[in-house]
């Protein structure tokens, strides 16, 4: 998460700077109405994230999808930032309950460890060994890496891994095929 204001409120400013160049709005797109609103406000296109996590084709752990589907809120935090210190928006889980305050701020020692190890860990934070062994075991302990849980990991992985989701998660009520989601969202462009 690089921005600190909702996309629609920033869109007008970006359009004035962009001139004739097309601008895509990212963030908050979950329904055909969201697409229509973005286009009506001058966006040339939209970029969709959370809505596609909740598709049958998404390579995400089924329990992760269920947590996002039932999310009433999200948290903006740096908790899952070992090797990646930028803010990210996640669905709360056991790790955020234990190591974050209500606003997503991390406990002091976690922040210190992240800052102290960032230069060393950053080059390896998102690497895989190809065998899947590291991927299956990375979050058996709360290492707070930026990787989200995958289907082959144990279900308890969702309690200590980043469950990425935008604020639009609260407005998504089903897991569908990517084709159906695309068709439905495209209705907003008509």
Blueprint of the fold:
Blueprint: H1 7-18, E1 24-26, H2 32-40, E2 45-47, H3 50-53, H4 62-69, E3 75-77, E4 88-90, H5 94-99, H6 108-121, H7 133-137, H8 178-186
Parallel strand pairs: 1-2
Antiparallel strand pairs: 3-4
- The order of strands across the largest sheet is 1-2
How helical, in percent, are the residues? 25-40%
Q: Approximately what portion of the residues adopt beta-strand conformation?
A: 5-15%
Q: What is the H/E string?
A: HEHEHHEEHHHH
Assign an overall shape. Answer: globular
Number of helices: 8
Entry summary:
The protein is mostly helical. It contains 8 helices and 4 strands, in the order αβαβααββαααα.
Descriptive notes:
The chain is mainly alpha-helical and 190 residues long. The chain is 35% helix and 6% strand. It is built from 8 helices and 4 strands. It has a two-stranded parallel ribbon. It has a two-stranded antiparallel ribbon with strand order 3-4. Strand 1 (24-26), helix 2 and strand 2 form a beta-alpha-beta unit. The radius of gyration is 18 Å and the shape is globular. The relative contact order is 0.21. Mean pLDDT is 85; it is low at 128-142.
Any descriptors?
single chain; 190 residues; mainly alpha; two-stranded parallel ribbon; two-stranded antiparallel ribbon; globular
